[in-house]
Amino acid sequence: MLKKEIILEGLDCANCAAKMEKEISGLEGVEFAAVDFVSKKLTMEISPKVNRTELNEKIEGIVKKIEPDVKIVFEKDTSKANIKENNEEEEEGVNKKEIIRLVVGGAIFAVGIIFNFQNWLELTLFIISYIIVGGEVVLRAIKGIARGQVFSEHFLMSIATIGAFFVGEYPEGVAVMLFYLVGELFQDIAVGHSRKSISALMDIRPDHANLKVGDEIRKVSPEEVNIGDIIIVKPGEKVPLDGKVIEGNSMVDTAALTGESVPRELEPGNDALSGFINKNGVLTIEVTKDFGDSTVSKILDLVQNANSKKAPTEKFITKFARSYTPIVVFGALALAIIPPLVIPGATFSTWIYRALVFLVISCPCALVISIPLSFFGGIGGASKRGILVKGSNYLEALNNVETVVFDKTGTLTKGVFEVVNINSQIDFTNEELIEYAAFAESHSSHPIALSILKVYNKDVDIAKIEDYEEIAGHGILAKVGGKEILAGNSKLMNKENIKYQEVETLGTIVHVAVDKKYAGNIVISDAVKEDSADAIKGLKALGVRNTVMLTGDSKAAGEKTATQLGIDKVYTELLPADKVEKIEDLDAKKSHKGKIVFVGDGINDAPVLARADIGMAMGGLGSDAAIEAADIVIMTDEPSKIVTAIKVAKRTRKIVMQNIVFALGVKAIFLALGAVGVATMWEAVFADMGVALIAILNAMRVMNTKSI
Fold first, then answer.
1. How far from 456 is each of 418, 463, 513, 634, CA to CA, in Å?
2. Which of 224, 227, 320, 676 is the least buried, fewest Cβ under 10 Å from its Cβ?
3. CA angle 35, 41, 46 (to 5 degrees)
4. Residue 63, SS3 per DSSP
């Protein structure tokens, strides 16, 4: 499948976005389509065989049919800043026009209300005021009907207000349209402010790079810089691309990526990641990744595309809105016609007015705008804390977590191994044992291998290694200088029928054999992270029923760590395939709605991350494998961020449920009041635009995650 993105400039109707999504999803060759009202973007997965030109024409036809004023940008413009600026200028221009129309139309309406003119002059003033204020709404309603889009908010407002004129309620017809547009204006401002707030949360995209060419420094776009180029980062500037520091020392602010306020020091040889902000010194950096592959690009792409994976609640609200509006319209029609025919003394004008009130209340804007906005804000707020959530569906799923399964090394422990004991046999010295182990582990980047190489403290002559084989879950077989070296766990010794020395220790044991003869063992230990115990306590406080640890370590080492941290269950001496089996066993025992989270380092645990309901990668900063493998990426090495992620999810759901209950509750009350004649159109406007505005403002609260 090919991924395709289309920018929908000027998309200002959430209900229309849902209609576009439904129709585009049904096109031939389109496997998946999601229209995100908040970011004004259509994300699709399409078949490689589909004719792109024909598909683009069909998409443009659908968009223009539903929203003629939307401008479609098919090519993914790398300069997202330009689109953002154009959208902001466009919104400001539209707001100015609306304000002018409202002021002029409102002034004429006020004159008609205040002064006692003759009936024909008063009616003329109200009609002029109505045309100025609501002419565009009526025009858009007519265009919509011509294109087959009958049940739009413009149609509902036009019918309701024109109907008011026909039943003799001229001032009310104009006033309702006036207040509707005031509400629309405030709604647009609130949504615009929310969009800007979310954009500001992720405003980590660098504006430029200082490219060093000879003795000259050129200010260029980050996209123009290639791997191997040298860039200069001055104090106060963002690091524009991933690279290695070759000159200079400085403190850098990593908060945009990790959510951590404590600066870290960079010196020659350290990795500098795009999105870091240079605090004091000048850094000279050799670029190691193109801008498209850099950390900042991957993070931006993840967050901006997160809303294409919609939560079940969002999908429900979209379906609900599609059914709700036509039902209310036909209900209003019945309300206008049936009572005057069956109730003695009932007049058509009274019941038509009540039906018009019914119509004004029926628009589902409060829900179709505020719910996606809440989820998008939750994802943006989480990213500000260094937690990347790949979709609203994963954010919502975090509310139902029953079991959290942890990998041990690098997740609950620091992954910083140290050799604490060297036990050589009679025919070998400790130095020889370490040398053999160093040759065997020389090709590995595993923390255990690095700790052995660190103790060896010499350059390994790779030329001496004649053969090398990694045996999954067991260890390594290497031929060095004509000798066969085996280095690994007890399973490797048993597999090769080598008698080995049992060691009672809480560390990781690497057994070494030379030419099938046992040479001894090396004991390596790993320290538990400072906040691991707090993370386990925090999860239990949030209602997580089970905490489980899976490790390839010995039973003694695994059980000691589990006891130390308060973990409920531990499974030790596991191969990678065994971990998947354990996840499947746990999955079979969970409740219908319950979810299993697996937390690992994202590099060695890809199969388990994929098998769990929610795969969470720890320490994703700069790790491509972690970002690719997991559903949620924690950019730092802190297990406590798992608790933060669940808290953000719970707060998001709380605000979503508040908006659903509030919007539907108020509308139900006013629909009932309107039907019995208690509510007028004035109250109906509040039930529509007022509720939408309150719901949007409530949704904006989710972006503030500082107190979590």
1. 12, 17, 17, 33
2. 676
3. 70
4. helix
Distance of CA 476 to the CA centre of its chain: 40
CA distance 188 to 166: 30
- The domains spanning 387-412+529-635 and 416-527 adopt the same CATH topology: no
C-alpha to C-alpha distance for 194 and 700, rounded to whole angstroms:
6
Beta bridge partners of 413: 528
Binning pLDDT at 50, 70 and 90, where does residue 506 land? low
Contact call for residues 544 and 534 (beta carbons, < 8 A): no
> Residues 174-208: pLDDT tens digits?
887 887 787 777 767 766 776 666 666 556 778 89
Q: Which CATH number fits domain 387-412+529-635: 3.40.50.1000, 3.40.720.10, 3.40.50.12780, 3.40.50.300?
A: 3.40.50.1000
First-last CA distance in the chain: 39
The β-bridge partners of 44 are 4, 33
Nearest to 231 by CA among 281, 285, 271: 285
Annotation: CATH topology of 2-74: Alpha-Beta Plaits (3.30.70)
- 472 C-beta neighbours (distance < 10 Å), count: 8
Tokens read off for 623: 């790790």
- Return the CATH fold of 416-527: Calcium-transporting ATPase, cytoplasmic domain N (3.40.1110)
DSSP assigned state of 690: I
Burial of 277 (0-12, 13-18, 19+ CB in 10 A): buried
Residue identified by tokens 């060093």 is: 212
DSSP one-letter code for 70: P
Contact 635, 388 (CB under 8 A): yes
Say how many C-beta atoms besides its own lie within 10 A of residue 262's C-beta: 9
Provide the CB-side half-sphere exposure for 175 (13 A, CA). 16
CATH for 223-293 is: 2.70.150.10
Rounded-to-integer distance, Cα 225 and Cα 238, Å: 15
Say what the pLDDT of residue 197 is.
Answer: 64
The single residue of 407, 553, 613, 637 carrying the catalytic annotation is: 407
Half-sphere exposure of 222 (CA within 13 A, CB side): 28
Three-state secondary structure call for residue 474: coil
Q: Determine which of 316-325, 632-641, 644-653 has the lowest per-residue pLDDT on average.
A: 316-325
Task: For residue range 299-309, list pLDDT tens digits in order.
Answer: 777 776 766 67
| Crossing angle for the helix pair 14-25 and 52-66, to the nearest 10 degrees | 150
* Residue 482 falls in which region: left (phi positive, over 0), alpha (psi -120 to 50) or beta: left
User: What residues have CB less than 8 Å from 506, skipping those under 6 apart?
Assistant: 525, 556, 557, 560
The alpha helices in 308-459, defined as continuous H runs, are 312-342, 348-361, 365-384, 392-397, 430-441, 447-456
Whether 242 is a known active-site residue: answer: no
pLDDT on residue 304: 67
Q: Name residues whose C-beta falls within 8 Å of residue 260's C-beta, 6 or more positions apart in sequence.
A: 254, 386, 636
Tokens representing 289 are 């990744």
In the chain, what are the domain boundaries? 2-74, 96-198+321-365+652-703, 223-293, 387-412+529-635, 416-527
